[in-house]
Design a protein that fits this description.
Elements (H helix, E strand, L loop, with lengths): L1 E5 L3 H13 L3 E5 L10 H4 L9 E4 L2 E4 L1 H12 L8 H31 L5 H22 L12 H10 L2 H4 L5 H4 L1 H11 L2 H8 L12 H7 L11
Helix pairs in contact: 1-3, 1-6, 1-10, 4-5, 4-6, 5-9, 6-9
Length: 231
């Protein structure tokens, strides 16, 4: 059985969706980031980067959400495009685009707007601009077909879903989905899937800390409390 180390953040939710869609047997193991559980030596043996999600499949640890999605898709043969060289290349290109651009820019946009100890207008503007630019690229791709890979529902759609579910909050824009109608269509379709509803319900099974107090800040953003670097 797969052990799934997770919390309710966007990246773990992508993997939760795959696990629910695929029907794989798994054991959810909560890692409460606001209580610092990701920094335990036990967890860092699984992911040295001290972040969720991670899984253990048998005796093999895998970390990074998109790596896990690709691993599980290859392992099961599910939620992949047709088996040809061109489709595989396209899948990998978009998967890395989401991993290296869409997720990080969206995450930094919400961090500098909501959680940074000081409001830095340039940082807010830069990351908001880049996040929106990346989401526009996703929306343009979805204008070409029902899913990221045309008519085939794949791990790319799951990867988009994990972050898209928080877009209104991250970009502080209640009307954001009006700007991305194709993304909105995809999100509504995936949200209606029973697997997505089960994935969203998963965090309610565990008592994750809700308060974003100083303890949570210390565990999630330790740089805030670190000494300034010597210049």
């Amino acid at each position: 059985m797969i052990k799934f180390f997770y919390n309710a953040a966007p990246n773990p939710m992508k993997v939760a969706l795959f696990l629910e869609e695929s029907g794989l047997d798994y054991e959810p193991v909560p890692i409460d980031s606001k209580r610092g559980q990701q920094h335990s030596e036990t967890f860092k043996q699984i992911n040295p980067n001290a972040k969720v999600p991670a899984i253990i499949d048998g005796d093999v640890p895998i970390f990074d959400s998109n790596a896990i999605l690709l691993y599980l898709a290859d392992r099961t043969g599910q939620f992949l495009p047709p088996d040809d060289h061109g489709s595989r290349g396209t899948l990998l290109s978009w998967l890395m685009f989401i991993a290296s651009g869409l997720g990080p820019y969206s995450g930094q946009a919400v961090h500098f707007r909501k959680f940074a100890p000081e409001q830095i207008p340039y940082a807010i503007k830069r990351y908001d601009f880049e996040a929106r630019r990346h989401w526009q690229i996703i929306d343009d791709r979805l204008a070409e077909g029902r899913y990221m890979m045309g008519d085939t529902y794949t791990i790319l759609d799951m990867a988009v879903w994990g972050w898209g579910d928080r877009l209104t909050y991250m970009l502080a824009d209640d009307n954001i989905m009006e700007k991305y109608p194709n993304l909105d269509r995809l999100m509504k379709e995936l949200d209606a899937r029973p697997a997505a509803q089960r994935a969203k319900a998963l965090p309610t099974q565990h008592a994750f800390k809700q308060e974003f107090d100083e303890e949570a800040m210390q565990h999630m953003y330790p740089q805030i409390f670190a000494p300034d670097p010597v210049v």
